[in-house]
Amino acid sequence: MRRLLIGILLVPGLTAQAADDESLIERGRYLARTADCAACHTTEGGAPFAGGVPIASPFGTIYGTNITPDPDYGIGEYSADDFYHALTEGETPSGRQLYPAMPYTSYHLMRREDADAIYAFLMSREPIARAAPETDLSFPYNQRWGVAFWNLIYADALEPDAPSSQSSAWQRGQYLVEAMGHCGECHTPRSWTGAMDLDRHLEGGSLAGYRAPSLEAEALADRGWNRDDLAHFLKHGMSPQGSVFNEMFPVMHHSTQYLTNEDLSAMATYLLGDTPPAARRIEPRPLEALSDSARRGRQSYLDTCAGCHGGDGQGKPQVAVAMNGNTTLRLEDPTNLLRVMLDGIEARDFPGFARMQEMPGFAAHLSDAELADLGNYLRETWGGRPGDITPEDVADLREDSAHAAP
Fold first, then answer.
1. What's the half-sphere exposure (Cβ side, CA atoms, 13 Å) at 90?
2. Which are the contacts of 159, defined by CB distance < 8 A and separation ≥ 6?
3. What is the pLDDT of residues 23-54, one digit of tens each?
4. What is the model's pTM?
5. Which of 65, 77, 201, 214 could form a disulfide with 219 if both were Cys (CB 3.0 to 4.6 A apart)?
6. Which residues contact 293 (CB under 8 A, 6 or more apart)?
7. At 198, is the secondary structure helix, strand, or coil?
8. How far from the centroid of its chain's Cα atoms is residue 344's Cα?
């Protein structure tokens, strides 16, 4: 009853009947998933939306806040207007500036009716009286008042192209990708100020030591993506191009797996266009066509990888993805491939009964030269890329990982 009263009393412009409307709450649940709220506001194994998720940045660690309707630690005292303002302008009712790790730089495009529905859903949740950890940023970035000046330049800089002759699916996809899903926040490079470099929008970014790859249509097609596979990947976390890992797994786990097929198809339509470029196919290269480095790497592959990924790179269902056609091997930058080989990937459960077993890291078992040769074998054989990884490239990533370790 308390949650219902909070929802009724704190939604100016919404009737009591609307606040109690289960369909509004369910719509808000869907939109909260579309906006991927849980990924930053729900810790693994923790209470939903109670905050505490650490978000690493070049300036320090920012923690996702409590957005349950608790009046002391959450948003229980927020009105719908307050919530919309915080969501789209990055400012709390008290005037406290939010750091742009909360993607209000994309959410400023969110429609008011969608924000109100998310608000109604959150106010229907169980209040959790738990404070989120304090954000830990170095000086001068810990001076929140300075964000107000940053906002004058960057807060509403994102202005997607106005649709003209594009299809309704493209227009819907634009809203889902740019505003709700805020995909550009990770897949766009950032300047030294921490703002998205909108001159290179969706060209790819850096996140937690990995590369968030380009989402431009030509780049997607060059890596073998078509609309159906991209929509399937967002829904199920895997496709012929591989499976989600690193920071993309929580996005699929908390958000995209719950979206309708129509919305996922719209997102793929927006990213690839109404007339998408043809997906590039790559034929595996025979051993005799490979570089000396790649030929040396084949033995490491047979010794350490083939048991799970198959001697011919065909993969094994419920065990490991195929190498043949794998999108990570087709990236121009080999960072993600090298990171995976060094650090491994933990076991993951996917929607339905699908899962992938743990992939161990080989940092302690293979030398820099061996890892370079292995990477070149994978990229040349199945990625259509040159074998230009050097032992120095691997050493640099090892050093970066050592500096990032707690």
1. 25
2. none
3. 999 999 999 999 999 999 999 888 999 998 88
4. 0.89
5. 214
6. 372, 373, 376, 377, 387, 389
7. helix
8. 19
User: Both tokens of residue 263?
Assistant: 């919305």
Cα(6)–Cα(399) distance, integer angstroms: 51
From the CA atom positions of the chain, what is the Rg in Å? 23
- Residue in the block written with tokens 């998408």: 276
Give the pLDDT of residue 164. Answer: 79
Q: Cα separation of 402 and 396, whole Å?
A: 10
The fraction of the chain above a pLDDT of 70, given in percent, is 94
User: Is residue 279 within 8 Å of residue 291, measured between CB atoms?
Assistant: no
Q: Using the 8-state DSSP alphabet, how is residue 257 labeled?
A: G
Instruction: Quickly count: other Cβ atoms within 10 Å of residue 176's Cβ.
Output: 21
- Contact criterion met (CB below 8 Å) for 231 and 264: yes
Q: Which pair of structure tokens corresponds to residue 106?
A: 């994309």
Candidates 307, 304, 287; CA nearest to 295 is: 287
The candidate with the shortest Cα–Cα distance to 395, out of 356, 363, 357, is 363
Tokens 């025979």 -> residue: 286
Q: With left for phi above 0 and alpha for psi between -120 and 50, is residue 42 left, alpha or beta?
A: beta
Amino acid at 315: G
Q: Which of 321, 339, 343 is nearest to 331 (CA)?
A: 339
Rounded CA gap, 313 and 226, in Å? 21
**Backbone angles phi and psi of 204, in degrees to 5:** 110, 150
In whole angstroms, give the CA distance from residue 170 to residue 168. 5
Pairing of strands 359-360, 355-356: unpaired
Distance from chain centroid for Cα 148 = 26
pLDDT digits (tens, 9 = 90+) for 261-307: 999 999 999 999 999 999 999 999 999 999 999 999 999 999 999 99
- Type of residue found at 402: A
What's the whole-number mean pLDDT along residues 152-181?
A: 91
CA distance 49 to 51: 5
CA nearest neighbour of 121 among 15, 31, 10, 52: 31
Give the phi and the psi of residue 254 in degrees, each rounded to 5: -90, -20
State the Cα angle at 321 between 325 and 390, rounded to 5°.
65
Quote the CA–CA distance of 178 and 162 in Å, as a whole number: 12
